[in-house]
Amino acid sequence: MEHCLSSKDKELRGRAEECKEGALRLSIDKRYIDARHGNTKINYRFDFEDPDSYEEREQEILSLAFPYREEAKKLIDNTARPVVVGSGPAGLFAALILAKYGLRPILIERGEPMEDRVKTTQGYRDGSSKINPRSNIQFGEGGAGTFSDGKLYTGVSSGLKAFIGRVFVVHGAPGDILYDSHPHIGTDYLRKVIVGIRKDIISLGGEVWFNTLFQGYRLENGKLHSVVVETDAEQKEIRCDRLILAIGHSSRDTFRALSRLGIMMEAKQFSVGVRIEHLRRDIDIAQYGMDTADTADLSAANYKLAVDTKTGRKLYTFCMCPGGEVIAAQTDNGSVCTNGMSYRARDCVNSNSALLVPVDSGDYGDGILAGIEYQERLEKLAFTAGGSNGFAPVTRYDDLLKGTVTKSFGKIEPSYKPGVTPADFSDIFEPAVLDTIKSGITVMGTKIKGFDSPDAVLTAVEARSSSPVRILRNRETYESVNVPGIYPCGEGAGYAGGIMSSAIDGINCANALISSLI
Questions:
Q1: Among 121, 190, 353, 389, which is disulfide-ready with 150 (CB 3.0 to 4.6 Å)?
Q2: Phi-psi category of 333—alpha, beta or left, where left has phi over 0 and alpha has psi -120 to 50?
């Protein structure tokens, strides 16, 4: 059954949990927003649950996450400890699954634990410290997604989504992520969730090595023998015959090391562009017909757009952060790269989104690592355009169209920290990309009123929306096509995009590893 309700979700959920019909329990199955026809509604769909069927469903969810529970019990004593590299969603869930099987994985993370990582990134934002190349917005416990919006929506079809959602809720995520049609945790909640999962892994016998850089692997008779890591300037070798590589899309040094070692990879299409900011209130009104600050029932409005442009290329939005901020996402002190972030409340003054243009070898040239080099060039050009002090180059949309450098901002102030510098974006982007951005924003203005506002602020450069390479793996076994025992995993390996799909891939790789042992 469906109802259109305006009561606060917290109150509604409480009523649903209290309501019973005989032995049946009433629960919320789905919540979604219908903003068509200028009449915004919050729609809820309810289910009556039989306690027995509820237990059956929970067991089914567990069996999807742990299909080899019985078989794995026989392996524990005779199995070498697997190593997982990277503690983003893919690596974290891979390690969690392996730990729950009893295999006591070793999780390697180049960055800091969450408690220290938050302080490190905040130090750069407030201007009190420089970028730590090993622990920053991209690197550290939780991966790049930790300092984003915590969006869990994905187009990937998998029964594992229910399991992942439950893990998040058990560790402190809001319960509405289990039924919201576009669930999000918020970076502030996600940080706590990540720490909880780490503690679970450790309690099950796993280890997490922070400030530890993966440097490569060693083979013996063509098979994986060990991995080499560096910690506190000391090199160590860890004996292992099963390795999950969940290195993230920004591990450029690792991609280069893997290329030298001969693991098979290929260049892949990715996208580059800018972040665009509008007033949150304006986006709310354009989408919902109201300012969400005036109600407790709605959080700031989302959007997702993709348009054709005069250049023949597409422009699309990505990682839209309602009521959020544009943040520094570079990993060194000689480049500038942006991303978006929202807290759970999504109540900041601006809303932002990436505006991206797909690029391929026709733009960045031949070679497996050519895309990485292209990203680096753009980020260095952005660094120079921003004044070579870590400030990001910005422009008003009207000034971008006129080809002039912004002298003052209108009603929209840029949110990027530590600061911004008005710049000529033609010093950063080639015409094919810049003209697509110009043309595409105009078209997007026909989709969302005010999107093409002259005062819209553009911040450069957004270059790390996805990995520029793919580590080739077998479709059935998930192993590297030429190095047995290595499981390329997640967004960095080219097989996911976002928190949920990365976590799904991590679980699949962990189970593939278990399957190889049976």
A1: 190
A2: alpha
Asked if 82 and 107 touch (Cβ cutoff 8 Å), the reply is no
User: Position of tokens 């026809």?
Assistant: 37
Q: What are the b/e assignments for 11-41, b being 16+ CB within 10 Å?
A: ebbeebeeeeeeeebbbbbebebeeeeeebe
Q: Rg (Cα) of the chain, in Å, rounded?
A: 23
CA distances in angstroms from 118 to 86, 162, 279, listed in the order given: 17, 29, 27
pLDDT the model gives residue 12: 44
For residue 508, the Cα-to-chain-centroid distance in whole angstroms is: 18
Determine the 3-state secondary structure of 455 from DSSP: coil
Residues of the chain with pLDDT under 50: 1-22
Strands annotated E in 366-427: 392-396, 420-422
The residues near 423 (Cβ < 8 Å, ≥ 6 apart) are 385, 386, 393, 394, 395, 405, 460
CB atoms within 10 A of CB 417: 18
Distance CA 319, CA 353 (A): 6
Pairing of strands 223-231, 212-220: antiparallel
Place of tokens 């993370």: 109
Give all strands of the β-sheet with 420-422 in edge-to-edge order: 306-308, 314-321, 350-359, 270-279, 457-462, 392-396, 420-422
Burial (CB count <10 Å: 0-12, 13-18, 19+), residue 377: middle
pLDDT of residue 58: 87
Contact 493, 467 (CB under 8 A): yes
Q: Which amino acid is at 518?
A: I
Question: DSSP letter at 296?
Answer: S
| Helical (H) or strand (E) element with 259 | helix 252-261
- Whether this model's pTM surpasses 0.70: yes
Give bridge partners of residue 2 from the DSSP assignment.
45
List the one residue out of 274, 329, 325, 319 whose CA is nearest residue 137. Answer: 329
Q: Give the DSSP H/E element, type plus range, for residue 361.
A: helix 361-364
CA distance 216 to 269: 25
Q: What is the pLDDT of residue 16?
A: 46
Q: How far apart are CA 326 and CA 255, in angstroms?
A: 27
Residues in the chain, total: 518
Residue type, 148: S
What confidence score (pLDDT) does residue 23 get? 58
138 Cα distance to chain centroid = 10
> In this structure, are residues 324 and 237 in contact, taking their beta carbons and an 8 Å threshold?
no
Q: Comparing C-alpha atoms, which of 55, 51, 48 is closest to residue 20?
A: 48
Q: Which residues contact 375 (CB under 8 A, 6 or more apart)?
A: 252, 272, 463, 464, 468
Number of alpha carbons in the 13 Å side-chain half-sphere of residue 422? 14
